Amino acid sequence: MRKLKLTRVECPSCGHPLVSKQREEDLLFACDCGTIHMRDPKPKEVEFQIARPRDARRPDNVYVPFWRVSAHVSILGSEVVGGYIHKLATLIEGGGGRYSGNVDIYIPATKLPAEEFRKWAVAFTNNPPRYAEYKDFGGISRMPCNISKNEAEKLADFVILTNEAEKPGTMQYIQYTMTVNNMSLVFLPFIRDSTAKLYINL
């Protein structure tokens, strides 16, 4: 019979044991030294920010993790009947061409119903949240991070296409390139009511 060897997962920053404080599907390991890690396959430190809630005293507060996908997007060609490429042109800043530049795409890092996922991803990509930072979660629980970096990068394409599909007109085709420059986690404060519906608390 083969023996199962268990190894302790240690923080690469301080050497202390890493423990996932959420359910089993949580991909994050928090350390007392103030760092957060994701096993990839070994623990790798993840950049993150924690937003200060507007009302931190509410008992129904919860933090929702989002991947902020900072990418360079270039539209190589498109055709829209009865409309035009609008959202990407509005979001893109800088770059060398008419439709080329940088954009932050927000991907919920926790599993949400499809409509809820689309709602918050599109809302924050179009209007990036503004917030003051918290040094920690301040005793507020957080929803588990169960969307990996690789999954979030693929879902960024979905958000771009969903954005354009919401404008008047029929999209015939769109050809673009997306180069991911950086990915980080942003924990945004929400209020979760008795039906599990989420309301932003910024």
Radius of gyration: 19 Å
Assembly of the depicted chains: single chain
Structural class: alpha+beta
Indicate the mean pLDDT: 81
The total of beta strands comes to 9
What's the number of structural domains?
2
Strand content: 35-45%
Total helical elements: 3
Main β-sheet: number of strands, strand sense, barrel status? 6 strands, mixed
Cα-to-Cα separation, first versus last residue: 55 Å
What topology does this entry show?
Layout: E1 28-30, E2 36-39, E3 43-45, E4 48-51, E5 61-81, H1 87-91, E6 100-108, H2 114-126, E7 133-134, H3 149-165, E8 170-192, E9 198-200
Parallel strand pairs: 4-8
Antiparallel strand pairs: 1-2, 2-3, 4-7, 5-6, 5-8, 8-9
Helix pairs in contact: 2-3
Explain the overall architecture.
- The mean pLDDT is 81.
- The chain is globular, with a radius of gyration of 19 Å.
- The protein has 2 domains: 8-46; 47-200, no CATH class.
- The N and C termini lie far apart (55 Å).
- A hairpin with a 5-residue loop joins β8 and β9 (198-200).
- It is of the alpha+beta class and 202 residues long.
- The strands form 2 sheets. Strands 4, 5, 6, 7, 8 and 9 form a 6-stranded mixed beta sheet that branches. The protein has a 3-stranded antiparallel beta sheet with strand order 1-2-3, with no helix packed on it.
- It has 3 helices and 9 strands.
- α2 (114-126) crosses α3 (149-165).
- It has helices at residues 87-91, 114-126, 149-165, and strands at residues 28-30, 36-39, 43-45, 48-51, 61-81, 100-108, 133-134, 170-192, 198-200.
